[in-house]
Design goal:
Layout: H1 6-9, E1 12-13, E2 20-26, H2 32-48, E3 52-58, H3 82-94, E4 98-101, H4 107-111, E5 120-126, H5 131-145, E6 155-162, E7 166-172, E8 189-190, H6 196-199, H7 211-217, H8 221-226, H9 234-250, E9 257-263, E10 268-273, H10 276-289
Helix pairs in contact: 2-3, 2-9
Length: 302
């Protein structure tokens, strides 16, 4: 019987020390609308222990009838901008100042770093459903960290995605491919990780959609649920995983995994824990998958 003991040997992922945390929630649809409330809870707790916090929600879309009930919106919000609706709701419920943009993400406009910031940590939470949005998040991470002279990056990316009844949450900070051992400062401390787009390069590619899939893609969220092509609770599960990874990263400081995959139908879940061996294997699989990327089922973000 082969037992996976990598968790017991894994390093704790510790970001740079910060006095101010800036969160950008990119995508406020099925997953993002639930994740927003989890981010609010975390920021409320961080504020209670003396940390300065900021949250910005970015999404260009309006709430539509088909978004209900799979997204965290109600009938009274149909026709309103998703980002603005969630920002106002969080402000009223938690007393937090939340910014929003009813537009698509643009690095220069929305996130370009302020180099005068002291002890700031920025985390991009991606809850998007297409490769173009992920390409912009990837570019944001690349542009933001390339001027960083510290060993610990100032910008991180957490990406959540899902299919019919399965999903994954990935975390990373570096778009450059490096040896696995370069991410560790000791056997017990990890200061940086490969970005989600490095572990899964297919996230940045436009995948070919088969005829039946194309028809399904044109259906609303509610219709997808009714015909069994979309689990009613999959987005909430992804949002919970995002909230837990964030909490362990910046509040409890006990995060030991860089990827979690789960399946609601089979009730299974597995994680990749932070060890040089696991990182090496993940990077090796990513490299081998490049020529066959179009045939490999990509993690999605519906």
């Amino acid at each position: 019987m082969n037992l996976d003991l990598s968790f017991s040997r894994s390093a704790i992922i510790l970001p740079k020390e910060f006095s101010k945390l800036k969160l950008f929630l990119i995508g406020a649809g099925g997953t993002g609308s639930f994740a927003a409330m989890n981010l609010a809870r975390l920021l409320f707790e961080l504020q209670r222990i003396g940390k300065a916090v900021e949250l910005t929600i970015i999404d260009p879309d309006l709430v539509e009838n088909g978004n209900i009930p799979r997204s965290n919106f109600c009938a009274a919000e149909i026709g309103r901008f998703k980002a603005q609706t969630l920002a106002e709701r969080i402000t009223l419920a938690w007393g937090l100042e939340v910014s929003y943009s009813n537009e698509k993400l643009e690095f220069e406009k929305h996130i370009k770093p302020n180099r005068n910031g002291f002890k700031e940590l920025t985390i991009l939470v991606g809850c998007v459903d297409n490769h173009l949005a992920r390409q912009e998040i990837h570019r944001t991470l690349e542009e933001s960290n390339k001027y960083n002279s510290h060993s610990a990056p100032e910008f991180w990316w957490i990406d959540g995605g899902n299919g019919k009844s399965s999903g994954q949450v990935l975390i990373g900070s570096e778009v450059r491919r490096e040896k696995a051992e370069n991410h560790f400062t000791s056997d017990t401390i990890c200061k940086k990780l490969p970005a989600p787009s490095v572990i899964h390069p297919e996230l940045l590619e436009n995948q070919t959609i088969q005829t039946r899939q194309a028809k399904v893609e044109r259906l609303s969220c509610a219709e997808l649920v009714r015909i069994g092509e979309q689990s009613l609770h999959i987005n909430q599960r992804v949002a919970v995983e995002i909230g837990e990874i964030l909490t362990e990263l910046v509040l409890t400081n006990n995060l030991r995994r860089f990827a979690t995959y789960f399946d609601l139908e089979s009730g299974t879940s597995r994680s990749n824990y932070c060890t040089p061996k696991n990182l090496t294997e993940a990077l090796g699989l990513a490299e081998k998958s490049k020529p066959k990327a179009k045939r490999r089922r990509k993690p999605s973000g519906i």
